[in-house]
Sequence to fold (154 residues):
Amino acid sequence: MADREALLAELSALSATATSADGAVSLSVNTDGVLTRLRLTDAVSGMTPAEIADAVLRTYIDAQRESAQRTGQLLAQVGTGGYLMDRLRWRMQFEPTPPPVFAPDSAAAPPASSEKDDAVLKDRSSDAPPAAPPAGPVADDDWYDKGMRLGKAW
Fold:
């Protein structure tokens, strides 16, 4: 029981911090990858809103990746199977393809159709609304593509 309490205390205290390459953005996330601190330096005053958003998202991804790695290391002592460990592995491998960043002094403006389907930033206001959920109860297998897990994850 003492080991469990120590593990829970370590997970609760875990914080991963990342800083953008230019030092404009610094942020921290907790063990769940939830943003807990965001700091912007004066360097953002010379950036466009799109550049700031891109820097924040790239830095956030770095911090989430670090958080997932450290959380996985802590939880490895209780097993490496199960949904939680699968999600941590996914967070460590997540590689978005953000739209290109255009320098403010660039002579060429970004093309109007520079948006890709795999972009981190995408205007989704014109997307079709999501399909309605199916009527009736939903099977557990629909929530997790590998089906029901019978092995102990903890």
